[in-house]
Each structure stands twice: as structure tokens, then as C-alpha cells.
Amino acid sequence: xxxxxxxxxxxxxxxxxxxxxxxxxxxxxxxxxxxxxxxxxxxxxxxxxxxxxxxxxxxxxxxxxxxxxxxxxxxxxxxxxxxxxxxxxxxxxxxxxxxxxxxxxxxxxxxxxxxxxxxxxxxxxxxxxxxxxxxxxxxxxxxxxxxxxxxxxxxxxxxxxxxxxxxxxxxxxxxxxxxxxxxxxxxxxxxxxxxxxxxxxxxxxxxxxxxxxxxxxxxxxxxxxxxxxxxxxxxxxxxxxxxxxxxxxxxxxxxxxxxxxxxxxxxxxxxxxxxxxxxxxxxxxxxxxxxxxxxxxxxxxxxxxxxxxxxxxxxxxxxxxxxxxxxxxxxxxxxxxxxxxxxxxxxxx
Amino acid sequence: xxxxxxxxxxxxxxxxxxxxxxxxxxxxxxxxxxxxxxxxxxxxxxxxxxxxxxxxxxxxxxxxxxxxxxxxxxxxxxxxxxxxxxxxxxxxxxxxxxxxxxxxxxxxxxxxxxxxxxxxxxxxxxxxxxxxxxxxxxxxxxxxxxxxxxxxxxxxxxxxxxxxxxxxxxxxxxxxxxxxxxxxxxxxxxxxxxxxxxxxxxxxxxxxxxxxxxxxxxxxxxxxxxxxxxxxxxxxxxxxxxxxxxxxxxxxxxxxxxxxxxxxxxxxxxxxxxxxxxxxxxxxxxxxxxxxxxxxxxxxxxxxxxxxxxxxxxxxxxxxxxxxxxxxxxxxxxxxxxxxxxxxxxxxx
Lengths: 349, 349
Description:
The structure is a homodimer. The first copy, chain A, is an alpha+beta fold.
């Protein structure tokens, strides 16, 4: 029986990682760039240009709080921001199914436009393909993006170096050291549950709206404060996958407190009905920051002054002695958070 | 009855142009960049960075002379080259159908790797999504690419300026003047017919193989010669669509000679069976160059010394007095070449 591609291969967890390491890095490993593909970080940096791609196949196209157009712009803007880039321009490649209502395309493009304006980026190049009915389900978008180094990134690292050495000038998954504080910029799980409820598959209805939003302005504000060593958005595979990527690439463990993780009642209830963990659900408007402990409170208060990060919390810290994500539960126990194999809700981005 | 998207909206001809002008430029017009989206040229230039995106939905994935992987790399490399960029790095975003054989993915990635090596570009960022069975047909790829200004582009324009004024430093569709010679770098129609024969739909079988190849090395060689004002690859909509884009954007007419256009017997025969024009079929390894007349022979002989351009021909010239593409036929008449509404063979790229 030949080996087949499964949904888990695209769901951002350990199965995706295995596929990527096996079939992609085996062929395209090339470590000479500032931030190479091999880093498997949020974006790459080539000749000083921050570069990132994302395809979006969210189903349905429209969901509470957003749609595929807004998602595509925010996803790429955020990934460029997460390594310390200032997003500059995006490409937009559309693959549509024959017979799609013209008005659906127009509605999606309106969302693209609004999200670009919010993020202050421009669509500068594009491609349009139409395939026969059934060739895709409605529409797939790809946004790639280019950015330059944030003008505040050097300042950020100067602050880091007041407290400890660091041997890179980009915000990388491999930069954590024991003691670094972990800050989450707000509620988790909203995006996945919003998309899920739009499907009406499980009789699930909720008033949860997606968090999909550009984070570049918020990121700029905290870089001006300084002291951040790593930043990442908890998309596919959610918060727990993100923290495991940090553990693995930085060689640390991470301890978090359940009581500190912002979680809406509606998300909690939906997760209980679906039997899934909110820590594994993809988000589209949140960042997780690793910060030198001396600057954590200052970064936190700056985040809380922003619209995007108003509900930020210090949720834990990096530790030595183990390589797992460990959670102190609300009832007082300690448990190892499992590494997700993939996102429990498919096709949310 | 609401307006619907049709196959022609993605086929690169006048219908695509209308869609793009109406729904894209209406929203995303922004003329401040070196080569903006509004130019609707092969690639854009932003802060000195050449940037381009392409999604590929060719069906079937494998065809004589290439596959979707090779196509994706060459398409983006060539578009960056066509404005005078030196391609540097590509992104690769894969959307796959659940159940796809793992070996199909591996075969496509091998082709990506080989084409990248040929073109001397690197895959530096990527994305992998899996959708349910039927969500896409097998696989869609997006490659976006970044490039820098070719180191030979200034020299090229210095040579142009020996003979006439030109007010841009990029190779643009709007740069032609009456008298410029039109050079085609080889046989046309091969790619479309190769893909078509792989479908076995029309009982069409031929020994034609796709021309899909990276053109950046060939382009570099002719920029060293100099005198080129515009360059474009005749992909969707073929040679005739390309020439009409030049006419429209440069405000010229173009006269070509049918006897000069390299056309294989097998392509000619297939076109007769299918009732389509070889001038409208998409190519993936050819370039059309507009050159100041004084340099045309030198550019031609340099092209002919390359593997990619061995069968280059001067096929005509830009003229004043009308705004059409006019062809002197082999039998001696003159006819207006119609502007294609789209590519007559869908889903070849």
C-alpha cells in the first residue's frame, strides 16, 4: 500500500513537522541565508529581505469575524512581524472555481483591502487562475510577503544584551534561555471555534468571533520597549505546538500556568463539546513572546495598552532540566501538555 | 442571474484583463513603487526588490517535458527575469488533496529541486496545506519569488540610450517605440500541446514536449549585449496576447511575419485538429524581446548561442499608424491577428 498524504500532514503539528523535515529539508536545505528555510521559523530572511508565503484554504470562506481575504493578509503580515520584520508588500494569488459568484470574489477582495489598510501594506503583484468546477472548493488564496528589518529591532536587542548574551539579531524560535518569561497576547481558541461554528456541522453555535487581525503595529510598539528574544503566532497546532517548537529549537522546557491563559467561556464550552484542547486550536491574531525576565512586566504593560494585546498575560517561563511543556493546572496539579499531532480542527486557515 | 466566474477569467487574455482591471486595480492601485501593480507587468519592483507570485494548477501534474514542480519554479524565475531582475529566492506553497500518494509529492519536489538548481535559485520559505479529498484536484502550487536588479541592466540601458531616449530603468511593456525589433526566442506552442496530449482527451497524441525551462541565464547574456527595451514571456494567451499587451501599453502597432515564427510540424498539426491558433497557446520557456533596431542582430546572434534561445528569430517590429497586431501571412496576405479572449487550452499552468 503506497504511503498517502493525510489531513494531519497539513495541520501544523508533529505530523506536518515530520513531512517537512523529511521531504522538504532533505531537498532544499541551504543554511547560508540570515534566517534560512532550515530554521523552519515564521519567515525567512534573505539578503536582508524578510520573505514569507502562506496558502489559505479555509472552509467556509466567510466566518464570524473574518473571511479568507482578511485571513490571508493577516497571516502573512503576522509571520513577517514575528521574526522582527516590518511588512512592506504582499502578493495575492487567487485560484477560483468556475461558476463562483463574482460577488463572492468582490467581497473577499474588499476584506483584503481593509486588512491591508489596517496593516499598512500594499498588494503589489498577483495572479488569477480559474479551474473547472470541482477543481478547488470555491477559492484558494496565496499571499506571500516581503518586509524589511524593523527599525526598532536593533534597539530591542540592545536591551536584551543589557541582561544576557544573544548571538542573533532576529527573533527566532531558537533564542530562548531558561528564565525567559512567556507572554501570550490574549484569548486563545477564538479563530478555530468561529470557523467551526460557521460550518454548523456539529450543531455548534456560539457567539465567538475570530481574532484574525494584523499584529505588526503591536509588535512595533513592544520592540520599542525591548528585551524580546522570540516571538511566534500560535496558528495551526495552537499554543501547545508553538511552545514545543520553542522547547525543541531552544533546548529548554517551558512551564505554564493554566489559570493565566485567557480563555473565553464560549471557547471552553465548545472545546468540551468537541472533546478537543483549546491549547491545540489555531489562532490568527495572537502572538506569544519570550522576553528576558527583567523586561517582562514592561513589555506586558505595553502590550496591554494596545487594542490587539489588551488581554495579554505572562503565562509562564522557560526552564532547564526537562524539554517538555508542563502546565500547572487550575486545580493545583502539574501535567505534561501533549505535543499535538495536528490542529484538531482542519481547514481553518 | 448573478455574474459568475468563468474559465476565461483565468486564461490570460482580454477577459482576464477585464477582471483584473475591474476588481483588482479598482481596489489595489498604488503607483508609488518602481514598478507598481498598476503596470500589470511580469513582476513588480518595490524598494528595489523584484517580487512576483504565480499559482499553478496544471492538469495533469505530469506531462511530456515537465511537471507542476518544474513549471512553478520556471514561471516565477522567468517573470522576475523579464523585467530585468536577477531571481534570488523562491517560496513554495503546496496545497494537496488528502489521499495523494506520497511518491507524487516527492516526484514533484525532485523536479522543483532540479529546476532550482538549473536556475540557481533557492527555496527559502514554504507552506503546506492538506484539504479533504475533492478540495483540490491532486495539488496546487504557488511559487512567489524575490530578485534583485540584474547587475547588467544599467549597461543594457546605456546601450539603449546610445540610440534613443528611454525614461525607465526596467524592462517594461510600455517601453516600445516604432522601429523596435521583435525577437522571439524559439518555437511556440510546445507547452500547451504537450499538456493537452498528456490528457488524452481528444485522441491527440504527439511527440511534442513542453519547453518549460528557466530563462534567467539566457536573459543575463543578452543584457550584457544591451539595447533591449522590453521583455516578456508568452504564457497564458500566448504570443498574440503578449503582443497586444505591448501595443496597448506602449501605444504602438506590431507587424509580424508568419514565416519567421518558429513552429514545429507537430504543433501545427495538433492546432489544426483542435481548431486553435498556435499564437494563442501558452509557452513556458520562451521570451519575446523588443530591441532597438541597431542592436537587434547582435542580440539575435547572442540568443542563438544559448541552449534556451538556439532557434531565436526576429519576427517583426513595432510600428506607428495603428494599434493592432498585423501578420504578413506565408501566402503573402496581411491580416489582423485577433486579440485572444483567453488561452484556448485551459489549465496548462
